[in-house]
Amino acid sequence: xxxxxxxxxxxxxxxxxxxxxxxxxxxxxxxxxxxxxxxxxxxxxxxxxxxxxxxxxxxxxxxxxxxxxxxxxxxxxxxxxxxxxxxxxxxxxxxxxxxxxxxxxxxxxxxxxxxxxxxxxxxxxxxxxxxxxxxxxxxxxxxxxxxxxxxxxxxxxxxxxxxxxxxxxxxxxxxxxxxxxxxxxxxxxxxxxxxxxxxxxxxxxxxxxxxxxxxxxxxxxxxxxxxxxxxxxxx
Length: 235
Hints:
Layout: E1 3-5, E2 11-14, H1 18-33, E3 42-46, H2 52-61, E4 64-68, H3 72-81, E5 87-90, E6 105-111, H4 121-131, E7 132-143, H5 148-155, H6 157-162, H7 174-183, E8 187-194, H8 206-216, E9 228-234
Parallel strand pairs: 3-4, 3-6, 4-5, 6-7
Antiparallel strand pairs: 1-2, 7-9, 8-9
């Protein structure tokens, strides 16, 4: 399970094997399913990494999409590899609101981003809310601390080091993020336990993993061991 390392030496994702691509594409589709595509929309992805999800969403929806990241090499690569008229990439920090001037968004999305800001979530969520239009939504996939792999990798120092995790990085639970979102003034929050497809598994196991996951995600208690929590919340 190879990792994509940013320009600071931290792990920011997985190498794009077939299983990882399928996993990310499914997540893009889940995010799209939460959007009202009957209306004009501006979509911001924070922590877009090498650009795949922003590209897929721009391609499938036809809406205006901006993919942002703090890693310059990631953004430079995304600009070369993914080109659409309704898509742009830029090195921007959503915690610096002036970077966006007066621009506001209907949807702000991210795949495994908020947990990098675990110890600064109050400020981060307040800033995300400022960047939303009235009635806009945030849509995020985040690692689930109830998942056995996540519990190990985030809580055991030697495994954190091996995985090149950032110091502030920590998986969290559904109750934790619901509480934080409510405190930040978000409403209509929905959180689901979702996804049992592991990145980097052999191609032959992709379809069975999805089929088994679709069943397990419907079983009370057991579904709480999914890899991720899927978050939707409105301004």
